[in-house]
Each structure stands twice: as structure tokens, then as C-alpha cells.
Design a protein that fits this description.
four-stranded parallel sheet, four-stranded antiparallel sheet, about 15% strand, binds zinc ion
Length: about 475
């Protein structure tokens, strides 16, 4: 079997063949760091993280670059996102960028999204961006007006090839004064002059200004991955104009193809609606982590195909959490049995189960990263594993090791949903059960009028920071 991926550029599934044997160079558009990451970010970066993990599982050496946008990304209103964040928090834009970059990685760590190999900041690549703009002007694909530089979509015949749009049909939603500067409404800014109030600004041949958002990705991807490179990923909502413009800039400047495979992931919906602050259904990852285990969220995302939209409901997420716990409980039981297991080779039944499961998992994943199919194979295997664990026949060390490796590789390395402390179980849960046990013992002592001993339990728990509250419904506790 070989890996096949759906390439948005050719609009078909293709056998994946990297440019250099054994190596994959991959770029994914990163976050604009002016606010907390939300569940939509969670879906995108879990989707692409799982793709990177599977490519590594297949033996590829993957170089994964994902940018941090800390300049140039405007809202539809023409407002600069970074400046909006700075105004909101009364801080410098770079403080805002640093804060939300750290928060972004903190949230991604909890989702088990592996850190990219390179996380280039846009603000650290201004000279390279200016060079690209100069080259585009020299080659006749860009023009300067009043200190801003625009890409000329009519000069680049292939504009629209990624998104399938035609230049004739394009009308930009830009503000009127910007529209007046452009030769065509769909022309987009490579470099923008900085108005007096604009804090983030750099000197350029066209005066003080700042780069356009699309430009960043063309520059930072090719700087670290070369041109062409293998895979470019991103959200389908950014296919146009962002990705389309990335292609145009990079290809017009060099005459070389840009990314060979374009992978687009579908959006996250909340109960059938797009997530929007205005709809009141906006959920940050921090907010979601307060309600659900981050790995259950990751597992929920992987239960559907990365290209499709994903509709989030509380019930579906709760169900995903239960499903994941069925898998991790079996994986934990296998690993615990390994302690003190009887020596011996893997049984024929276990070997066959492991091989068949691995083959089915790989077959699914080879089909454009069908994680749902891979998870179904693991559920089926787990039913058999549970029967084996409950059966009379003792499992040999060889059998347990084979099963442990299966879970470790597929559920852990590829899907990324195995907790790090699998064997310890959750110590928080254990602590809660121990406190409940002490509360029961105290109640028993009080019933026997052994108040001195009962009070000693209460006082010693208090010394550990656990406060007991006696009420009509019994005793509850809280951490002080
Ligand atoms: Zn991008």
C-alpha cells in the first residue's frame, strides 16, 4: 500500500511521492497571535499534527514549519489584528504577540500537538519580504501606489488556479480608499504604507510600512523548505484569497512551482453553525479544557475526516470521551499486566490480531489520512483484547508486549491520544477517592461517638489543605 492524499490543487486523490526520497517538507499556516486560541484552531492543528505524526510513522523525516503571524493580518474592517489586541490590553503589539504565542503553545501541548520544527515569526523576516516584493515589481507582477505595493492579478495568468476562481468574477471587499489605489479590485497588498497611528512599521524602498499577510507565508515557507516543497496545509476558509495569493507571489517571483500538494482541512462548527463571537458560540481552548479532557477533544476531532466540517455538540464530545476511555483502559490494563507477566513468546492469536489491526489501521490512514477508519480498527481490536484479558488463559510477556506496542504506536505515536502517565492513572482521581474514603471513616467514627479520632481526621486533612464541610446532605470537601 502507498499513501494517497487529496490534493486541492489538482482536485483529486494522488499517490504521495515526496520531492526527496525519505523526506517531507511541510508548511502549515500558523495562528495570528492577538487573542486566545479557540476550538477551530484546535481542529486545524490536531488535523495537521496527526498527518505529520503519520508521515513520521511511515518512516519519513519530516521538516515541519508553521509560522507565527505577529504582523500584517487585517480584519475585514481593515483593522490590524495585532493593533486591536494591543489597544484592548493597553500593551505594545510585541507584548501581545509574545503572550499569545506562549498561550498558543501551552494549549497545543495539552492537545498533544507536537511543536513544529521551526516556528518562524513574521516580524523576524521583514528583509526577506521586502526582497520578494522588489523581485515581483522587477518582473512586472506588482506596482507601487502612494507607498503601498499591490500584486497585479491580471499580470499573473494563473491567479485562481488553486481556488478555481476567475479573476473576472472577483470583487474585493476592501475599503473604498484602498480600492481607488488598485488597478483591479482583487489586487492584494504585498506591502502597506503605515498610517501615522500604525505602531508596527519598518523602513522600505517605498517608505515606512508593513508586509501583507499573504506575503509572510510565501517567504517563510520557501526560506526554510525550499521551492518547490512537498506539502502546504491550512484551513479551507483560507484557500482564497490567502493560499491563492501565496501561490501567486512565490511562483510569479521565481517561475518555479510553489507547494506540490495542498491539503485543506474542514471547519469546526458548533451545533451546525459557524463559530463566531457574534453568535455567542465562541469557545476558547482554555474554556473547553475546563469542561473536557484535552485528549478527549483531540480524539473527538480525529473521529471525523480532516477534510470534512466537524460539528461539535456536547453529547458528541462526551461520547468521544467515553470511547477514548475504553481504548486507554485496555491499553493501561495491558501495561499493568506486563509487570510480573509469565515469560513466553506471543501467542498465534495475539500475533494475528496485532498484524491484522495494524494492516487495517495503515490501510485507512493511507487513504488520505482516514483517522476514523483507523480508530474503528482499534475499537474492534480492543473488544478482543478485553476478552483475552478477562479470559482464563494467562497472557505471556510476548503477547502483552505485542499488544502494548500496538497501542503505543497507533494510539500514542500516530493518534496522540495516549496519556503520558498511562500507568499511574490519574493521580487526581485517586486523591479524590482517598479523601472520600477518609470522610466515610470519619462518619463511622462519629457514629461510634469516637469524636477525638474523627476530629483528628478532619484536622489532619485541613493541615493538608483539604477543608471538610458538614451539611444536611453529608460531608463535602474543597481544597483551600
Ligand atoms: Zn499562510
Amino acid at each position: 500500500m502507498s499513501l494517497r492524499v487529496y490534493n486541492s490543487l489538482t482536485r483529486q486523490k494522488e499517490t504521495f511521492v515526496p520531492l526527496h526520497e525519505g523526506r517531507v517538507h511541510m508548511y502549515v499556516c500558523g495562528p495570528t497571535v492577538y487573542m486566545d486560541a479557540h476550538l477551530g484552531h484546535g481542529k486545524t492543528y490536531v488535523n495537521f499534527d496527526t498527518i505529520v505524526r503519520y508521515l513520521r510513522y511511515l518512516g519519513y523525516r519530516v521538516l515541519y514549519v508553521q509560522n507565527i503571524t505577529d504582523v500584517g493580518h487585517m480584519l475585514d474592517t481593515g483593522e490590524d489584528r495585532m493593533l486591536k489586541g494591543a489597544a484592548r490590553e493597553q500593551r505594545q503589539p510585541m507584548e501581545v504577540a509574545e503572550t499569545y504565542t506562549r498561550y498558543y503553545f501551552r494549549d497545543m501541548d495539552r492537545l498533544h500537538v507536537l511543536r513544529p520544527d521551526i516556528s518562524p515569526r513574521a516580524s523576524g523576516h521583514i528583509p526577506e519580504m521586502i526582497e520578494l516584493v522588489k523581485r515581483l515589481i522587477e518582473r512586472g507582477y506588482a506596482y507601487e501606489v502612494n507607498g503601498s505595493v499591490y500584486f497585479d492579478v491580471n499580470a499573473w495568468q494563473e491567479y485562481g488556479k488553486l481556488s478555481g476562481r476567475r479573476v473576472e468574477d472577483l470583487q474585493a471587499g476592501a475599503r473604498v480608499e484602498v480600492l481607488e489605489e488598485k488597478r483591479h479590485p482583487a489586487d492584494f497588498a504585498l506591502w502597506k504604507r503605515a498610517e501615522p497611528e500604525h505602531i508596527m512599521r519598518w523602513p522600505s524602498p517605498w517608505g515606512e510600512g508593513f508586509p501583507g499577510w499573504h506575503l509572510e507565508c510565501s517567504v517563510m515557507s520557501t526560506k526554510y523548505l525550499g521551492q518547490p516543497f512537498d506539502i502546504h496545509g491550512g484551513g479551507v476558509e483560507n484557500k482564497f484569497p490567502h493560499h491563492e495569493s501565496e501561490v501567486a507571489q512565490a511562483e510569479a517571483a521565481t517561475g518555479e512551482p510553489f507547494a506540490r500538494y495542498w491539503l485543506h482541512n474542514g471547519m469546526l462548527m458548533i451545533r451546525g453553525e459557524e463559530m463566531h463571537k457574534s453568535l455567542g458560540n465562541f469557545i476558547t481552548l482554555q474554556g473547553a479544557f475546563g469542561q473536557w479532557d484535552p485528549l478527549a477533544i483531540r480524539f473527538f476531532i480525529l473521529l471525523s475526516h480532516y477534510r470534512g466540517p466537524l460539528d461539535l455538540t456536547e453529547e458528541a464530545l462526551d461520547a468521544a470521551g467515553k470511547g477514548l476511555s475504553r481504548l486507554t483502559t485496555a491499553a493501561r490494563a495491558v501495561r499493568r499486566r506486563l509487570r510480573g507477566a509469565l515469560e513466553g513468546e506471543a501467542s498465534a492469536a495475539v500475533t494475528q490480531l496485532v498484524e491484522a489491526t495494524r494492516a487495517r489501521f495503515e490501510e485507512s490512514m493511507d487513504d488520505d489520512f482516514n483517522t476514523a477508519g483507523g480508530i474503528a480498527a482499534l475499537f474492534d481490536a480492543t473488544r478482543e483484547v478485553n476478552a483475552m484479558l478477562a479470559g482464563d488463559a494467562a497472557l505471556t510477556r510476548g503477547s502483552l508486549e505485542a499488544l502494548d506496542t500496538l497501542y503505543r504506536r497507533l494510539l500514542g505515536d500516530v493518534l496522540g491520544v495516549l496519556p503520558e502517565n498511562l500507568e499511574e492513572e490519574d493521580t487526581e482521581g485517586l486523591a479524590a477517592r482517598l479523601i472520600d474514603m477518609l470522610i466515610d471513616m470519619r462518619a463511622e467514627l462519629r457514629r461510634n461517638r469516637q469524636y477525638t479520632e474523627a476530629d483528628a481526621i478532619r484536622d489532619r486533612l485541613a493541615a493538608l489543605g483539604v477543608q471538610l464541610m458538614d451539611g444536611p446532605e453529608g460531608t463535602t470537601w474543597s481544597l483551600s
